C-alpha cells in the first residue's frame, strides 16, 4: 500500500508486475463473497488499486493507448476552446461520447482489470456494504480516478457506473456520511460523472436534490468542507448548464438561497466556494424562461 503511492515509476512497476492486480481483485471478490467487506486486508487491497488507477489514462502502456484511444485521432485540436471548466468544448465532449467504445474483454488480466466493469461493480459493492471509511473513500477515489480523463475509457467507466451497474444510489448515500473525506470524494466522483452529457438527466434525477440538501447555508470554515462545497456547485453547474428542467429542479429543491448566500462571502480565505457559486448563478441566469421564478 505504501509502495503504490510512491509516484509514477512505482505505479508503472506495480502495474506491470505479473499477477499482482489479479491477486488483489481475487482477494476482494472473496471477501465480498464471504460477507467480510470490513477487514483490514480488503481496505489495503482497495487502497492499492485506488493508487494504481491514479492518472491511468496518461500512464497507460502504448499498446493499450493505441487500442483504446484510436478515436482521439478524429478530434481536431482546433476544436479545443478555453472555458471555466477545462479546455474542451461541449462539441468535443459530445463527439467523444458518440464515438464507439472498445469492446470489453471477458477475462481481463493485469492492468486491463483496472477499468473493467467487474472491478467497477466491486467498488460499488464495497461503497454499499463496507462500513470502513478508508475502504469507502478508496473505492470512491478509484472510480473518481477512472472517470477523471476526457478520453473514451473514462466515459465508458462513467456509463457503467450510472447506467449498467446502477451505482448512483450507493454514491448518493455517501453524500450524507459524517466523514468529511468520504463525502468530498463522493462529490468529486459525481462531478466527473456529470461532465458526461448523456448521463446528466439520470444523475440530476437521482442525486440533484441530495446535492442541494448537503450544500451549507454559507461558506464553510474548513478547507475540506470548502472544497466539497465548490465541487457541489460545479457539479450543479454541469447538470443545469444545458437543461432548464434541471435548473428548475434545483429551484424546487430550495437551492437558490443557499447558492446566493455562498456566493456573497467576502472573505478571501475561503473564496473557492464563493467563486464556484457565482459561476453557477451566472449559468442559472442564462435560462431566461426561469427569470420570473428566480425573482419570486
UniProtKB/TrEMBL annotation:
<dbReference type="InterPro" id="IPR028435">
    <property type="entry name" value="Plakophilin/d_Catenin"/>
</dbReference>
<keyword id="KW-0677">Repeat</keyword>
<feature type="compositionally biased region" description="Basic and acidic residues">
    <location>
        <begin position="94"/>
        <end position="107"/>
    </location>
</feature>
<protein>
    <submittedName>
        <fullName>PKP2 protein</fullName>
    </submittedName>
</protein>
<keyword id="KW-0965">Cell junction</keyword>
<dbReference type="InterPro" id="IPR016024">
    <property type="entry name" value="ARM-type_fold"/>
</dbReference>
<dbReference type="GO" id="GO:0072659">
    <property type="term" value="P:protein localization to plasma membrane"/>
</dbReference>
<dbReference type="GO" id="GO:0005737">
    <property type="term" value="C:cytoplasm"/>
</dbReference>
<dbReference type="GO" id="GO:0005634">
    <property type="term" value="C:nucleus"/>
</dbReference>
<dbReference type="GO" id="GO:0098609">
    <property type="term" value="P:cell-cell adhesion"/>
</dbReference>
<feature type="region of interest" description="Disordered">
    <location>
        <begin position="79"/>
        <end position="109"/>
    </location>
</feature>
<comment type="similarity">
    <text>Belongs to the beta-catenin family.</text>
</comment>
<dbReference type="InterPro" id="IPR000225">
    <property type="entry name" value="Armadillo"/>
</dbReference>
<dbReference type="GO" id="GO:0002934">
    <property type="term" value="P:desmosome organization"/>
</dbReference>
<dbReference type="GO" id="GO:0014704">
    <property type="term" value="C:intercalated disc"/>
</dbReference>
<dbReference type="InterPro" id="IPR011989">
    <property type="entry name" value="ARM-like"/>
</dbReference>
<keyword id="KW-0130">Cell adhesion</keyword>
<dbReference type="GO" id="GO:0005912">
    <property type="term" value="C:adherens junction"/>
</dbReference>
<dbReference type="GO" id="GO:0045110">
    <property type="term" value="P:intermediate filament bundle assembly"/>
</dbReference>
<dbReference type="GO" id="GO:0007507">
    <property type="term" value="P:heart development"/>
</dbReference>
<dbReference type="GO" id="GO:0005886">
    <property type="term" value="C:plasma membrane"/>
</dbReference>
